[in-house]
Design brief:
The protein contains 4 helices and 4 strands. It has 108 residues and is α+β, with helices and mostly antiparallel strands. Helix 1 packs parallel to helix 2.
Length: 108
């Protein structure tokens, strides 16, 4: 057991989960606990377009579950000011997304 597991097992589902993890952090185990035991009704995430980022992995994970999660909003923003080198320009643009749970998890 970890702290998230203990915390979420002793409370009803959470209304909103705001997810903006540090760059290149992999949170597969933590996300499984958040999804299964904390049972968020809404998920707001940053970094949704960053493939090697936990935000990008979770974005794709939720998109692949249309019977459980629905994408409600999708937007983008620019990181930092000034010009970025051409090979890093795409990293300057970040996406955010909001998902709504449309079905409770089968294991609840």
């Amino acid at each position: 057991e970890n702290a998230l597991d203990v915390l979420c097992r002793h409370r009803p589902s959470i209304d909103v989960l705001i997810f903006d993890p540090p760059r290149k952090l992999q949170l597969h185990k933590e996300w499984a606990i958040l999804e299964a035991f904390c049972k968020p009704k809404w998920v707001f995430m940053a970094q949704a377009n960053m493939a090697v980022h936990a935000g990008g992995w979770i974005f794709n994970h939720l998109l692949q579950q249309p019977d459980t999660w629905r994408l409600q909003l999708l937007g983008s923003y620019t990181v930092g000011g000034g010009a970025w080198p051409p090979h890093l320009h795409l990293e300057q643009i970040r996406s955010w997304a909001v998902f709504r749970r449309v079905q409770p998890p089968a294991w609840s």
